[in-house]
Amino acid sequence: MTSIRSSLVAMLVAAFTLVSFLTALLGYRASMEKADELLDAQLHYAATILRATVPVTAERSPVPTEGLAFQVWRDGALLLRSEGLEPGPFTALEPGYAYANFSGFRWRTLAMPAVDDTWFLVAERADLRYTLAERVVMESVLPLLTWLPVAAIAIWVLVGWGLKPLRVLSEQINRKASDDLSPLDFPDPPGELAPVIASTNALLARLSSALQREKHFASHAAHELRTPISGLKVHLHNLAGDLEGEHPSLGHIRADLDRMQHLVEQVLDLARTQPELMPARFARLDLHALAERVTAALWPDFVEAGLSLSLTGERAPIRGDEGMLETLLRNLLDNARKYAGGGEVEVSVGPTTDGVQLRVTDQGPGIAAADRQRVFQRFYRAGAGGAGSASGAGLGLAIVLQIVQLHGARIELGEAAPGRGLSVMVEFPGEGAQ
Amino acid sequence: MRILLVEDDLSLACGLVSALGREGFVVNHVTRGNDALAATRAEPHDIVVLDLGLPDMDGLEVLGALRDRGDHTPVLLLTARGEAGDKVVGLDRGADDYLAKPFDMTELAARLRVFARRLSTAASSQVVVGPVVLDSAAHAVTVDGESLSLPRREYMLLKALMESAGKVLTRSALENRLYSWGEEVASNALEVHIHHLRRKLPEGFIRTVRGIGYSIAP
């Protein structure tokens, strides 16, 4: 992941370095020209002094010098010179500045004519000139380079300071709980962040009102659907009482009404157990005690269906939402009752090494391995349309899955015995794990 | 038996009035909470069937107002909300029973008959399951007409099971009925009592539901 701060700092340091070098380069060239001019003027001055102060009449012995060379010629005769020069003029006898190579070095020369065909030649070693000029230039450029790391640190700190509002904003968004849809609280945001904050808040508001509508739908639909169904049931009861004999339609209406009631309850359960909609009210509870209550409540239905129901296991403390877990157990047991066909349905609850395990097994036909993922889809019914398929909307396991996920649990379908029966296993994390 | 029905849904109320009339109840119907409070003040009712979602006030407020002024008429709550929390709150506020919509008419009638039995103490103190008759007024149990003498805890156990015949009572529910809070209960005390009871009762009368509890077939 790239960081705005790092890339900003890298770009700024690069730009700063480039500009510094360009400035240094231009400064170097300007300084060199200036130094050249100055040194040339000095050379000219030296020649002038030589001309003015040296009354040359006859040949003299050479004068020792360092970095500087001179010759005085008259009518082709060398009158005066510095030590260590080869014979002959070291530069052409033309007035003005030039470069010449002699005595093993490169020189800057000046030839200055005087009366009586007298030439004053002065020369300065070019390399010494450059060294001097370079030193002058480097001393003005070097500080720029040595301070570059300091500039980089300053840029790092300043960029960080400049990005502070962004950091504060991201921390605030990070800290928000998953179900907290309140607007971001960012008084006086910088101009760049204002639109981000405004549109994020608008999005949160839209999301929040959509969820509110869904929540209202779930609880209002509950009331609005259950009451007319109650009315229908009561009127059907009255009608059945008034009719002489059992009209064949009565049974169908009753069955349809039961189906509708079941579907309404399941759709409401589906809405109620949606994590975005309903925050679970988690509390400490004993899953075994809950299973005892639910199995006891459902036992008459099992007896009526010719099934036996039993519970095994021991105290199994978990953290969970009691109402939802009851719905989970009821759905699993309703499925077992509907599809088992006969035999024994067994519920076992107990602690494992790292949590609590709930297992519901039956002796029915089971679910083919290929179908075991699909049965969790909404409105999917195993063996739908097949002979003996039980009524139901196919929402039970979708609801179970939602509740399982909400509790951070894991669900697995398998065989109760080799090739027979269904085993539904739900593993809840232990109390400490949540 | 006079019932005050407080229900704002007219179709449901109309059906209930006729269905309960058929069961032999006299039903007064009002649709608003305030009317319900006025009606209970004006004349005594034996039972109030109270819907929780009323147009003018919440059913729980009606219940609260009723209890606050010392009216202890039995109240059965009807609710379409069906949240577990509502049930607890309703019973905490002094409701006597609770039924979630949509309910079966037979279930409502059965619950109301339980109230009625409680009100007219004498006649209905007998519970009969097969050959066993338990008379809670006389604390007497007979099997095929022969009197059976039972120790207190065994009697309480049999009474609880017979009153819930057809249902299964969990071990913890039975233990709660037999022993008060804090009383030391041996882990097999319940089994011991059941064992003794079974020896005195017809074969297979008390059924064990493995891991869950005990039951008596109706």
Provide an overview of this structure.
The complex is a heterodimer of chains A (434) and B (218). Chain A has 434 residues and is of the alpha+beta class. Chain A contains 9 helices and 12 strands. Chain B is α/β, with parallel strands linked by helices. Helix content of chain B is 41%, strand content 23%. Chain B is built from 8 helices and 12 strands. Chain B has a 5-stranded parallel beta sheet, with helices on both faces. Chain B has a 4-stranded antiparallel beta sheet with strand order 6-7-8-9, covered by helices on one side. In chain B, α2 runs parallel beside α3 and α6 packs across α8. Chain B is elongated, with a radius of gyration of 20 Å. At the A-B interface, α5, α6, α7, β7 and α8 of A face α1, β10 and α7 of B.
SSE blueprint:
The complex is a heterodimer of chains A (434) and B (218).
Chain A: H1 4-53, E1 68-74, E2 77-81, E3 96-102, E4 105-114, E5 118-125, H2 126-146, H3 148-162, H4 164-175, H5 194-242, H6 248-272, E6 283-286, H7 287-304, E7 308-313, E8 317-320, H8 322-340, E9 344-352, E10 355-361, H9 396-406, E11 410-417, E12 420-429
Parallel strand pairs in A: 7-9
Antiparallel strand pairs in A: 1-2, 1-5, 3-4, 4-5, 6-8, 9-10, 10-12, 11-12
Helix pairs in contact in A: 1-2, 1-3, 5-6, 7-8, 8-9
Chain B: E1 2-6, H1 10-22, E2 26-30, H2 33-42, E3 47-51, H3 59-68, E4 75-79, H4 84-92, E5 97-100, H5 105-119, E6 126-129, E7 132-135, E8 140-143, E9 146-148, H6 152-163, E10 168-170, H7 171-178, H8 189-200, E11 206-209, E12 213-216
